[in-house]
Amino acid sequence: MHDFIYKNSELYAEEVPVREIAEKVGTPLYIYSHKTLLKHYNAFDEAFDGYPHIICFALKANSNLALLKLLAREGSGSDVVSGGELFLALKAGIPAKKIVYAGVGKTKEEIIYALKSRILMFNVESPDELMTIDKIAGELGVKAPIALRVNPDISASTHPYISTGLKKHKFGIPINKALEYYSLASKLNNVKILGIHKHIGSQITKVSPFVEALKKVLVLAQDLKSQGIEIKYLDIGGGLGISYDEEVAPHPKSLARAIIPLVSSHNFTLIIEPGRSIAGNAGILITKVLYLKKHLKKEFVIVDAGMNDLIRPSLYEAYHHILPVTRKNRPKVIADVVGPICESGDFFAKGRKMGRPRHDELLAIMSAGAYGFSMSSNYNSRTRAAEVLVKGKDFSVIRERETYKDLIKGEKIPAFLK
Ligand code: LLP
């Protein structure tokens, strides 16, 4: 459910016509809905009501400071995977005690930063990392709170690039090695075992993989208990899908209903790390039609956004609805919607049936709030898009469009070239 709807053939973001925002701020432009974000966050929070839990929004989906602030005010924690994300989470006011830190390649500097910030826990992805964290914590004279990320070898039936829970993947430690590594951790002087973490993939549209994975993790928790290792936090990761096209994703309530009975006899605090299911359908990318082009029988709609703004179609052949900002009756065309970047992979849709767009017409690429701006780049030396947050009748620019000057920020000409 989102709040981008037509009123009299005009697409609105909550109560503001999208056209009005685009005219003021220009294109390409990301627009987010305050109301949708709140709704999605609270859907999670309420679904798990009745069982101790922390919702740790996965910053990688969208790390705009204003969005994070909005979520922080609702009580959100965060799942971070880099020093940069930790910095942003703290900057937005997310309490360190609600921050978990995953990722297979944490650097020494990042570990020190997280220890000094006193985050809730590290989700440790290898024994090698465990030893490193122990050593650094020892040097700092602190105890590092940790969970081991276990890889439950569960297929998440999603795109191979965003599936993470099979043993062939680089993430976590194989679940059959978990006891051994927990036992190792329990003997280290400078780490404190707090939890178990798992995350099996993203855009998962069924509840069953979550249940299967959790069952495996619960067996592990039981085994640990019998060895005297108590688990306080059970981090079940993120990954709940959204509806991009026809797929129907489970409501957080269905996830909670399947999960809570499995943990109700335990005294865990659950950690859930949703990213896409909070931000995905809360954002759209607005782009302007530049040219229409016909090659033999093929039609192209060339727009001013490119794969540098939204890479999901190029990278995962992801489907995004593309809607006209102003609906009009017009002849249908089957076209590829493409960007200006010098790569054949620069497309938003292939063979899409749509009303024939006109020059300068605005199009909305839907479901772009997660892994949209956060994966954008300056490829082809394109300035990154502006971002706007709408709340009711108001809207604010929450990130200025980059300028050409931003493109050379930090670059230096060496003396021998002067
Ligand atoms: N926790 C961990 C440890 C993760 O690796 C991820 C996502 C999440 C939580 C959040 O998952 P979500 O609820 O958003 O599915 N760029 C890809 C998605 C990559 C997801 C990576 N990990 C895409 O655009 O589809």
What does this structure look like?
- The chain has two domains: 157 residues, Lyase, Ornithine Decarboxylase, Chain A, domain 1; 180 residues, TIM Barrel (Alpha-Beta Barrel).
- The protein has twelve helices and 21 strands.
- 28% of the residues lie in helices and 26% in strands.
- The protein is an alpha/beta fold and 418 residues long.
- Ligand LLP binds next to helix 10 and helix 11.
Q: Tell me, what is the CATH class of the largest domain?
A: Alpha Beta
Specify the structural class.
alpha/beta
* Strand composition percent: 25-35%
Task: Name the hetero compounds present.
Answer: ligand LLP
Number of DSSP helices? 12
Distance between the termini: 56 Å
Q: Unreliable segments (pLDDT under 50, ≥5 consecutive)?
A: none
CATH topology of the largest domain: TIM Barrel
Proportion of residues in helical segments: 25-40%
Question: What is the CATH architecture annotation of the largest domain?
Answer: Alpha-Beta Barrel
The main sheet comes to:
9 strands, mixed
Number of domains: 2
Global outline: globular
In total, the number of strands is 21
The CATH homologous superfamily of the largest domain is termed Alanine racemase
